[in-house]
Amino acid sequence: MQKPLDTSILDNLPIAIGIADFEGKIHYINKNFTELFGYKLKEIPTLKDWGKLAFPDEVHNAQWLNIWEETKKSNYRTQKTHTPDTFLIRCKDGQSKHIEITFNIHDRLLFAYFRDVSELHFSKEKVDIE
CA-CA distance, 87 to 103, in Å (whole number)? Predict the structure, then answer.
C-alpha cells in the first residue's frame, strides 16, 4: 500500500511540479505549477484534462500523451529520470510558454518537473535570425 504523500517540501520548491498516478489521475501540483500555468488541481484532475488545455491542437496533445505512455513503460522498471523534452504549452490566460518537462517515476507515481525556458528559446531565435 502506498504511503500518503507529504507535499510540504514540494510546495516550497522553486520549480513547478506535478504528480500523477499510472492511470493518469493528477494527485498534486505545487504552487509554482499554478503560478506558471494558472491552472488549479480541480481544473485538471487528469493528464488528459490537462493535455486538452495545455496542448489545444490534437497533434501536440497526442505527442504529449505518447511521451507519457512511453515514459511509463520504459522508466517503471529502471526508475530513471526521463530526458527532458521541450513543449509549447498554453497557459490558462492564453499565453504560450516554452516549457522543458522532465519525468521521473517513483512508487508507481509520475513526477513531472516543469521549467520555463521561453527566454532561452527566444534568445536562441534572435541569435539565429541575426
Answer: 13
Rounded Cα distance between 89 and 97, Å, is 5
**0.90 exceeded by the pTM?**
no
- Choosing among 3.40.50.720, 3.20.20.70, 3.30.450.20, 2.60.40.1940, the CATH entry for 16-129 is 3.30.450.20
Taking Cα atoms as reference points, which of 49, 56, 52, 60 lies closest to residue 23?
49
Domain ranges within the chain, ordered by starting residue:
16-129
Three cell numbers at 8?
510540504
Tell me the angle at which helices 47-54 and 58-78 cross, rounded to the nearest 10 degrees.
140
**Residue range 3-44, pLDDT digits in tens:** 566 778 888 889 999 999 989 999 999 999 999 999 999 999
